[in-house]
Amino acid sequence: MPEPLALKDHSGESQIFFERAVAGFALLVLLTLFLVARLFYLQIVRHDVYSTLSDKNRIQVQSLAPTRGLIYDRNGELLADNIPSYSLTITVERVKDLDKTLEKIKSLIGLSADDIEAFKRRLKRRQRPFESVPILFKLTQAEIAKIGVNEYALPGVQVEASLVRHYPKGKLMAHAVGSVRRINEEDARKLDPVAYSGIDDIGKIGVEKYYETALLGKVGYERVETDARGKIMQVLDSTKPIPGKNLVLTVDTSLQQVASDALGDRRGAVVALNPRTGGILALVSKPSYDPNLFVTGIDYKTYSSLRDSPNTPLFNRAIQGQYEPGSTIKPFMGIAGLASGVINPEYTIHDPGYFKLPGSDRLYRDWSWAPGGYGGQGDVDLEKAIYRSVNVYFYNLAVKLGIDRIHDYLKEFGFGQDTVLDLPEARAGLLPSKAWKRKARGEPWYPGDTVNVGIGQGNILVTPLQLATAVAMIANRGKAIAPHMLKTGSELLEDSSVTRLKDVDRVPGWIWDLITKAMMEVVHRGNMGYGENGTAWAYIGRDIPYHMAGKSGTAQVVGIAQGEEYNGADLDERNRKHAWFVAFAPVEKPVIAVAVLVENGGGGSEYAAPVARKVIDHYLLDEDLDVAAVKR
Amino acid sequence: MSRDFVRRLPGTGYSYSGRRTLSEVLHLDFPMIFLTLIICGYGLVILYSAVDKNVAMVVSQSIKIGISFSALIVMAQISPIVYLRLAPWLYLISLALLVVVLLMGYQVNGSKRWIRIPGVFNFQPSEVMKLVLPMILAWYFHDRHLPPKPKHLFWAAVMIALPVLLIARQPDLGTALLIGASGLLVLLLAGLPWSYVFTAIGLGLVSAPALWLVMRDYQQQRILTLLDPERDPLGAGWNIIQSKTAIGSGGLFGKGLFLGTQSHLDFLPESQTDFIIAVMAEELGFIGVIGLLILYLLLIGRGVMISVQAQDTFGRLLGGTISFTFFVYVFVNIGMVSGILPVVGVPLPLVSYGGTSMLTLFAGFGMLMSIHTHRRITL
User: Fold this and answer.
1) Tell me: the pLDDT tens digits for A204-242?
2) Among residues 41-70 of chain B, which lie with CB inside 8 Å of chain A?
3) Distance from C-alpha of B21 to C-alpha of B28, rounded to nearest angstrom
4) A362 touches chain B (CB under 8 A)
5) Which of A316, A360, A372, A564 is deepest in the core (most CB within 10 A)?
6) pTM: predicted TM-score of the whole model, two decimal places
7) Would you call A327 a catalytic residue per the annotation?
8) Where are the domains of chain B?
9) ipTM confidence score
């Protein structure tokens, strides 16, 4: 002992202890108050927040997905259906070793690194424990069987069935109907989470996109109380889902098939519509793609091969493709000329095969131009200018009209505007004016620009659908239409925000008669010798059993140097001219208007007109029309 | 001195009459027993709810309380002098057992905490150390001058460090820290100069970043989870999010007994053990928890009062440490469940399901009663 004799100071020590005990107890009370403050904060101040959290834990709103509306063609053929699809899902809480389980699945039915990565992403987005997460979609019966047999070795892995979109017509209807895609993260941010809870797909293109709200239906709900493992303890209340509306479209599958077959392997588009109603009868764009690939998520390789293909199968040429209209613009130029009084039916020019602006040496050639002054089509009035497609006449007419007057007339036929009610991807094309060029190019309009526009070249672009619409309005003698895909349920069309065309009232009846007659001669005027036959007669007019009005067009893809002759055979396929043909029939009572575009097809009469003929033949012979009555 | 003597004498309640009170005859302290049993009863009601009205578990817990209470009575009969004499031996034996646990302990969840003789008993030496460390320190200081000299503080620190390090090796950092805290409490009550205390706190704050670096990964995760449970809401953050939700959704009066959804639908983890306060908070609300805290304060207050009245340093230090350590458990448990302290496995005293902690606590109270009811004049 270091201090053997020191007496302990007992009272002093108990005093020290007393002070320390008091201090300690004071601290203890302080800390208790701290706890009380914490509890007060959680239970009183933040009570509402935690009450909500607690209810969110306990009460699960299970969405009951409505079945997406079906889509039919005008004859009741199913274009978009819902079929059961089986996906493999994993509830990670029930899995012992996730890596081993994935390995096992891989050995059984195959699993790519992409699949696993996508699965892990979805796993992170999970809302609550015991929520199953899909890893593979569209299981085959064989795959389901393999998983079933090995169920014992795969706890937490299950096969779940759900309805997915199916397009029974595949490629044929892809561009007409559009398709749904799996909702991705970007979509999810924009979508109303309530309306889309439990919904995996969203209409991404075309009709599927435009009528998304109607097709979607209304999600139903079931409020259930669940425990922490997701087991349902009781159903609190429920609302049944309202299935999406079924849509009937104006398209005719058999006509679509005919148009598609008629185009064959060539790139191009066919649009057919009913000139009385504006209903689209066929909307073909080739090449096409299988929309079923997109429904449950397309793999990157397939997608990039579609996206990067030089033939652009995902591109809807019928409504997105903007091309120079070429000579198909000529009837509209004629209407503008006659209606504005710039020309009359007797107005005649002499065609030497080329046109020159006063004071300029630049040659604007006719298709009949030949070196050395041997070309030209003689004396030409408007009628002949149309059925012989005389460029020189329209160069002259365009200059007489001036670009702004051309612009005003063409605009009434829908050029330069998107007028299709329910195809959201449709483009507006380009209808030039002086104002446009100043604004877009910062340049003044030159007279030479007008000359080119006279034959549908230069700064004028149209989509096949726009041309079909405009031609339908000639068939209607000026009565406006609003092209659309939906046959029934017109209230759904009301809220379309596109421009509605007005009837072209200022064009008197005799002008429609004259233009229609000239377009009829394009097809029917034959056996009168070269220089007098309609441009399309030789290709489609010899044996036609009804009256068709048409106009061919050929749009240049590459510029041809002055003094050189266009020689299709010498050019690369991709630099060859685009072939156009527009038509309506029967002339007496038009029921169909068609626009055909064959990309790099060559001459319009030779390559596009036969396609139009096949489409119209099929339609007129299939519709119970009195074909005999329209026969010559 | 004399002033002090006069003031203290009546305060001790110490009687020269020679007639002993019933409390002294039975060596029991009735206020403390009363408070303890009320808390246990309250705990059983909450437990009944937490285990979904599983009567068997409530009976099992009642038996554990009964056994613990018997231990209390036995401990209370033993004179403090015996504890004083046994203290060094108990300390050495406990240290030895801690070594044995490290060498051949029974492993649960990656840490060796148990000595297990299958079919006979399971035994956790660290639990015994909760009582033995205060005993050995009280023994060490009882015949030394207080406040302690630096030399004595050094040896006391060694006595604290040995079991703390052994337990931390198991690894059971939570228990190691709690036992270390009880050792420090003895030093504080013994009159450790405040300057030391503040210096230590200052050093602690300064070295906190260094501490972070030596922490194991899972320990760092716990701190991060405390700061932001939402960083892993379905994993590490789950417990704390769910317990805060349970507590907060209880509100002022609670959802009603047996009506807590967080606990009954199994969102709340460990609802009958470490997180049982959340069940109480959810079902009986703020009021229910305040009631429990008041009971705890009364019980601890009684323990502190007994310690202050104790006649020697050994009794004072041991009794005071037992009382304040009890509060540390309460604070750490509620602090952890309510999200102000990291999650460490500390049961709520007298309420959480389980026998081990119950037995230790009751044994401690038995010692307090022994100190209070075995009187001797040590002048």
Assistant:
1) 899 999 999 899 989 888 888 888 877 888 888 888 989
2) none
3) 10
4) no
5) A316
6) 0.65
7) yes
8) 37-77+232-373, 89-214
9) 0.91
